[in-house]
Amino acid sequence: MEWAVWLHEQANRWTARGLDLLYPPRCPICRREPSAIGEGAVPEAGSSSWAATVCGMCARELSADSGRCLRCGEAGGAGGAADACRFCPQRPRDWRQIAVLSSYAGSLREAVLRAKRPAGDDVAAALASLIVRKHGDAIVSWGVGRIVPVPMHWLRRSIRGTSAADELSRRIAQLLGLPHSRTLVRHRATPMQNELPIADRPLNVQGAFRCRRRLDGERILLVDDVVTTGATLSACCRALLAVGAATVDVAVAARADRSSADDA
Ligand SMILES: [Zn+2]
Ligand SMILES: [Zn+2]
User: Fold this and answer.
1) What is the 226 CA–ligand 2 centroid distance (Å)?
2) Cα of 235 to ligand 1 centre, how many Å?
3) Whole-prediction pTM value?
4) How far is the CA of 208 from the centre of ligand 2 (A)?
5) Which ligand is nearest the CA of 123, by number?
6) Ligand 2 centre distance from Cα of residue 29 (Å)
7) Cα 152 to ligand 1 centroid, rounded to whole Å
8) Nearest bound ligand to CA 91?
9) pLDDT in tens, 29-82
């Protein structure tokens, strides 16, 4: 039924052109109109012609973060890909490398909070584009072969109606041309990490995740929206390594300071 597929694609293309005229693309972060989308604009992940792009100003602001350690994710660590930074010894972790767009503050914090809502898929797509623009080469150099989101418990997801981690990872996979698998599951509805004291967070998520299948020898990129203590990411890493994953690297939109209340 190749002709049916062709017809469907043509219909989509014409619908997209129609939408382009009806709703000119706006930056999904600041909602400004096309005239504001100037130099440095970043096309949305997997975009068709009408899809919104991140404007140059937002792209610069959200990607300005620099000097962050690629191992522990600490700002100002600047350990580089191969070297441990001065914070690394105090930040135990189960992943190999971590790509962070920026710190969890200001307009990035607002964008992440919007990406968590059902109507925030375009914001998640925009953040995915920015992560790939900033760290795509590094992620490719890590030899990643599969992208896996940090899962939300099914009950919480059905209440929320969306998962920012899922949307982010799906778009990153699309942009990098890599398979995307919801192979991790959260089989225990744990209390939200940000509702617990930092010291209680590792125990809260310990053993909360399992993998649906073996991943022998696979190199995984684990994706989440925000990281604070890294307890959730570490628990997910252990579940992936337990089913044979060769390496687990991480990509997140934002890294919160220890004083911040939100953790994922
Ligand atoms: Zn903008
Ligand atoms: Zn470090």
Assistant:
1) 17
2) 35
3) 0.82
4) 26
5) 1
6) 30
7) 29
8) 2
9) 998 875 555 555 665 555 443 344 788 889 999 988 988 999 999 887 665 556
Q: pLDDT at position 85, please? A: 87
CA distances for 216 relative to 60, 153, 196, 243, angstroms = 39, 25, 34, 7
Q: Which residue has the tokens 């990281």?
A: 227
Higher pLDDT, 1 or 143: 143
Q: Which ligand is nearest to the CA of 61?
A: 1
The 3 state secondary structure assigned to the chain is CHHHHHHHHHHHHHHHHHHHHHCCCCCCCCCCCHHHCCCCCEECCCCCCCCCEECHHHHHHHHCCCCCCCCCCCCCCCCCCCCCCCCHHHCCCCCCCEEEEEECCHHHHHHHHHHCCHHHHHHHHHHHHHHHHHHHHHHHHCCCCEEEECCCCHHHHHHHCCCHHHHHHHHHHHHHCCCECCCEEECCCCCCHHHCCHHHHHHHHCCCEEECCCCCCCEEEEEEEEECCCHHHHHHHHHHHHCCCCEEEEEEEEECCCCCCCCC
For residue 242, give the nearest of 183, 173, 166 by alpha carbon.
183
Task: Provide the residues around ligand 1 (an ion) whose CB is within 5 A.
Answer: 27, 29-30, 55, 58
